[in-house]
């Protein structure tokens, strides 16, 4: 499979190593220094694009891939106010767009566990939910996309209406975002009461889990069409296993 890497930081390099190990070819590496080279790629020389860039460039990168019918998966966070535009464009062009805030299989199992716990705790009003996420200091957005997905999972299964980094109320899930090195990513959901606390935590030990998930999704994505998510991928993975 011919893979185009858009974004060539630490995550891009980790994806490259795993993709080559699985006998794929990296046809190009796009970063800030050669951003204009993206115009050299299209559906005739690229099977799938993997986009892990930065919030200020993700929208244009994805727009280009969708317009040129290159199946693309993105793990960039901090640009999601424009995600609907990419989804609409994908449907108009009959192209392929996959988005996940986190590609780790373990984190996606954690998302499901979070929803199950939120449903269980929804009748236990004495407990107040909160989220804490810890990442390395190079991460530019806060809270993390993973923390937002976790908050959305709790909101879906409870009476909470929103999340906030600052505001606190009975309808708001407070999120604490900590930046320290080295920290690939830790997320904790806490339900606290006067009597006791309940916590669940996912801790990433390296970027390898995120990179492997991205490569596996790329392999799955190359013959798909439409707007797709990790739920679609995991559903197929479960059927095939």
Automatic annotation (TrEMBL):
Its Gene Ontology molecular function terms? 4-hydroxy-tetrahydrodipicolinate reductase
Give GO terms for biological process: diaminopimelate biosynthetic process; lysine biosynthetic process via diaminopimelate
**What superkingdom does the record give?**
Bacteria
Pathway this chain belongs to: Amino-acid biosynthesis; L-lysine biosynthesis via DAP pathway; (S)-tetrahydrodipicolinate from L-aspartate: step 4/4
UniProt-listed Pfam families: DapB_C (PF05173), DapB_N (PF01113)
Q: Which PANTHER family match?
A: 4-HYDROXY-TETRAHYDRODIPICOLINATE REDUCTASE 1, CHLOROPLASTIC-RELATED (PTHR20836:SF0), DIHYDRODIPICOLINATE REDUCTASE (PTHR20836)
Q: What is this protein called?
A: 4-hydroxy-tetrahydrodipicolinate reductase
């Amino acid at each position: 499979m011919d893979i185009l890497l858009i974004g060539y930081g630490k995550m891009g390099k980790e994806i490259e190593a795993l993709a080559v190990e699985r006998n794929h070819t990296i046809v190009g590496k796009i970063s800030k220094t050669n951003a204009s080279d993206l115009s050299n790629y299209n559906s005739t020389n690229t099977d799938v694009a993997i986009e892990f860039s930065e919030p200020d460039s993700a929208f244009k990168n994805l727009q280009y891939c969708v317009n040129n019918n290159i199946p693309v998966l993105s793990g960039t966070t901090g640009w999601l106010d424009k995600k609907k535009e990419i989804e609409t464009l994908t449907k108009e062009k009959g192209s392929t767009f996959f988005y996940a805030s986190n590609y780790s299989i373990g984190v996606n199992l954690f998302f499901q566990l979070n929803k199950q716990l939120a449903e269980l705790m929804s009748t236990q009003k004495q407990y107040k939910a909160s989220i804490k996420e810890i990442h390395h200091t190079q991460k530019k957005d806060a809270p993390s996309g993973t923390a937002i997905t976790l908050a959305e999972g709790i909101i879906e299964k409870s009476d909470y209406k929103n999340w906030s980094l600052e505001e606190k109320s009975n309808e708001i899930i407070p999120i604490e975002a900590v930046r320290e090195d080295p920290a690939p990513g830790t997320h904790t959901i806490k339900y606290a009461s006067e009597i006791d606390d309940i916590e669940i935590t996912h801790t990433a030990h390296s970027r390898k889990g995120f990179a492997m998930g991205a490569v596996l999704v790329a392999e799955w994505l190359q013959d798909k069409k439409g707007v797709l998510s990790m739920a679609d991928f995991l559903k197929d993975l479960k059927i095939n296993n």
